[in-house]
Request: fold
Amino acid sequence: MLKEKVKAREFAVKSHGDQKYGKHPYSYHLDEVAEKAKAFGEDAEVIAYLHDVVEDTSTTIEEIEEKFGKLIASCVAIVTDEKGRNRQERKKKTYQKMAKVSGETELALIVKVCDRLSNVKTSLKDQNSRMLIVYRGEHPVFRASAYRQGLCDDLWEELDKLLETPSEN
Reply:
């Protein structure tokens, strides 16, 4: 029997098809997020592989629950952006949802910070200053919504450091 993380990766890669992550194949992003989540257990890795399938493909939360169980589906639902007219509206609704998370579904918040860390690092590597400005602008509200003391402080420390506004000396 396939390990759940292998099954999740295969499912996600197939679901995303030919989608790109910037100039990279989508699997690049999924693998990065899963690698960061690895320290938090296999469920975190599974959620990491599936974190964008509902938002970016025709896959539904019901399909995720059927294939991977209720906890995984609940966590994927938490990290999936809510509907909205623009990024600002979608993120506002999503951050409000994340702010209410507690208990075992806090695993979703770990994956979300892994996702954001991957996005920021790729933006730096690919010199995507437009997205870095977006992430810096969203960071205070994102952090207020998703941070839980003691949950994954090392990841938050790394993210905070990367998003510090460069000084103008």
Summary: Strands lie at 20-21, 24-25. The chain has a mean pLDDT of 94.
